[in-house]
Amino acid sequence: MITFIYGTGNEGKFLFMQEVFAPLEHTLLGMRDFSISLPHVDESGNSPLENARIKALTYYQTLLEQRNIQYPLFSCDSGLYIEGLPEDEQPGVHVRRVHGKILTDEEMVIYYSSVAKSLGGKAKARYKNAICLVVSANEIYEYMDDDIASAEFLLVSKPHP
């Protein structure tokens, strides 16, 4: 049995990952299981894989420095990709940030409805996911491919009530 740490400050994501780990013969701990000051993670990458790496390395280093803990730690990230949009207009990891502004939930509905409208009223979309596992400072594994992407869904110009 291996103990893993999920490097995330998002409680909802941690609870979901606990469900994923439940049938496995491994232990999953979260950052909340340690008495540490959680660092600010600068998710400045341009892809889900870059952000997963930034998060995993930041959390791993924090646990090492504050508590000398060296369990394998992984972090995940995702980005939104919309069929029909040019590459330079893809939201990617900046789903909530448009033209430098962080959108509210309501603003996101309006913005992505307008994107769908510009693409004929609907567009296929999906989240591309990435994971980075840090076993030690010298042993780091990364993965991002279609087999861990979300199922396709439709963005529509008129959201359901």
Which helices and strands, and how do they pair?
Blueprint: E1 3-6, H1 11-21, E2 27-30, H2 48-67, E3 73-82, E4 97-98, E5 101-102, H3 105-118, E6 122-136, E7 139-143, E8 153-156
Parallel strand pairs: 1-2, 1-3
Antiparallel strand pairs: 3-6, 4-5, 6-7, 6-8
Could you characterize what this model shows?
The chain has a single domain (3-156), classed as Maf protein, CATH 3.90.950.10. 28% of the residues lie in helices and 29% in strands. The protein is built from 3 helices and 8 strands. It has helices at residues 11-21, 48-67, 105-118, and strands at 3-6, 27-30, 73-82, 97-98, 101-102, 122-136, 139-143, 153-156.
**Total strand count, please?**
8
Mean pLDDT: 95
How is the CATH topology named? Maf protein
CATH architecture heading? Alpha-Beta Complex
| The number of domains | 1
**Radius of gyration computed on alpha carbons:** 18 Å
**Shape by Cα distribution:** elongated
The percent range for strand residues is: 25-35%
Describe the biggest sheet? 6 strands, mixed
Distance N terminus to C terminus? 46 Å
Uncertain regions spanning at least 5 consecutive residues: none
* Helical content (DSSP H or I, runs of 4+): 25-40%
Structural class by SSE content: alpha/beta
Notable traits:
161 residues, alpha/beta, Maf protein, six-stranded mixed sheet, two-stranded antiparallel sheet, 8 strands, elongated
